[in-house]
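Quarterly update from the structural biology core.
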Amino acid sequence: MAQAKTTTNHDEIRQWAEKHGGRPAHVKRTGGKEDPGILRLDFGERDEQLEEISWDEFFEKFEDNKLALLYQDQGDSRFNKLVRRDAERK
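Predicted structure, tokenized:
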């Protein structure tokens, strides 16, 4: 069984996502004018509820909410989850 890793490193997150065909996104109808709302990594499954955003916007919200990425870095696994940083230490 693959072990999950956790990171807050922007370069590591971006490289992992792009290596697996992912791009930054948010859930439509969440947030507001200056707030992208709920963040996700979109891997192109054509989820109509997701809308692509820039990496800058993604990481700004990522830092504002003190998030970390939980992910698997083995094979083609695209398992990932955005978690609160304080949750990663428990």
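The chain has a mean pLDDT of 89.
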